Known about the structure:
The protein has a single domain (3-260, 301-336, 349-415, 427-493), classed as Alkaline Phosphatase, subunit A (3-Layer(aba) Sandwich). 22% of the residues lie in helices and 16% in strands. It has helices spanning 29-33, 62-70, 84-93, 97-100, 121-127, 219-236, 263-286, 318-323, 334-337, 409-412, 457-478, and strands at 6-10, 13-16, 23-26, 37-43, 72-74, 77-78, 131-136, 155-158, 198-199, 203-205, 208-211, 214-215, 241-246, 291-297, 341-344, 353-355, 359-360, 372-376, 391-392, 438-441. The chain has a 10-stranded mixed beta sheet, with helices on both faces. Strands 2-1-20 form a 3-stranded antiparallel beta sheet. The protein has a 3-stranded mixed beta sheet with strand order 18-3-19, with no helix packed on it.
Amino acid sequence: MGWLFLKVLLMGVSFSGFLYPLVEFFFSGKTRDQKPNFVIILADDMGWGDLGANWAETEDTPSLDQMAAEGMRFVDFHAAASTCSPSRASLLTGRLGLRNGVTHNFAVTSVGGLPLNETTLGEVLQQAGYVTGMIGKWHLGHHGSYHPNFRGFDYYFGIPYSHDMGCTDDPGYNHPPCPACPLGKGPLRHPERECYTHLALPLYENLRIVEQPVILNSLAQKYAEKATQFIQHASAAGRPFLLYVGLAHTHVPLSAPGPPGRGAYGAGLREMDSLVGRIKDTVDRTAKENTLLWFTGDNGPWAQKCELAGSVGPFTGSWQTHQGGSPAKQTTWEAGHRVPALAYWPSRVPINVTSTALLRCCFTPTAGWLETTELCRPSAWSTTRPSTPPVRRGRSAWLPAQRRFWLSGHLDQTLSSEGGARGCDGSVGPAQYHEPPLIFNLEDDVAEGLPLERGSVEYQAVLPEVRKVLADVLQDIAADNTSRADYTQDPSGTPCCDPHRIACRCQTG
Length: 509
């Protein structure tokens, strides 16, 4: 039995019984004198199978595929949560949702955000002399001190939440501005409705709203221009920089369908790929030898969108789909949190290497950043930091003679209270609490179709360890300095250039 590849479902909880590796890129003495730059690009709702380098059926990501060939690809990389705000909060703090307080999404009218006592990567690097920029979707609060400019970013250009979360748009925020299932596959079809190209949503440059409604079909071009300018200006000034880009893609379509193929979704994927390619080209021209470029996703595909959703690849969650509902975004099945991940840094990151090491996303804001770049360290997610040697310069190796369990669903609370996520056919999988837990062997069953028999020797051998790890982690979190996010809502909190116009449909110069 391959115990390295066990996954456990307990009370809606997702564990992964892999041995945690570490990936650290150690700098030469010369690099320590010259602080490295960091470019972090986060896609929205991109499926593991949406990256051509991962899945041969996908042909819409030539720039990302080239980046994979010139850098390192991680095929067992996991977002910190399977929804937007918790994933982003963990990315920037290096702390799981029950520690940093962000356990579900903020709304348009949310008055709070990422708790102010939490430290972000931007704040740490600012103190170290970096110039910091954030472009794109923030989704961690926009009121007062929750705004990116007050959370460690010198420059901000983007939207405060998802680009389908306008003020009063029909069908309402948190629903696609285009029909959810335009070909009639689900109950949300609205064949008579045209796709929106404008949305009652603010576009910020620092603290100022510069466009409202946002013109969606030009958003990618604006992001590319602002990212290019930021990198060029920081490089010309001789300043080390952090650029964090939260893409709008591929949450809902931003533009009309392109050539035949995957329709509107494929067009969005190609547009996103081109945007990433432009950022990479700018890095190559200005700061190639001293910049780590990291690309990943915030969670898995939004299956409710049917043909407008991304590809889960082989992680179909068969057991869950047979119960009804989705195995992707908003769930703790593999497709909900296993995401594409690429690292690119000439002379530092190995070329054309595929890593099968289990990693989880956390750019930890510690002083260690200035000596070693800890891309993903398990100490933020497990109770203690392993003392065994890490994987260096991207070479895969397992920590010896120990197993680590990855607690996802129970800890990040991404399952909705009314049950599982909605599937393309409109079905919603029931919230199921498995006692005793389901255990899958991911080495032989990546589709998570057939759990181990509860009476088997293999199942009984691992069950006590599962229970102990769960108890230990929950006890550790209870004793930790945890934060609490404010999820209260107030309509007056909606950012709008003209608060007297209820639909917020006003233009700014």
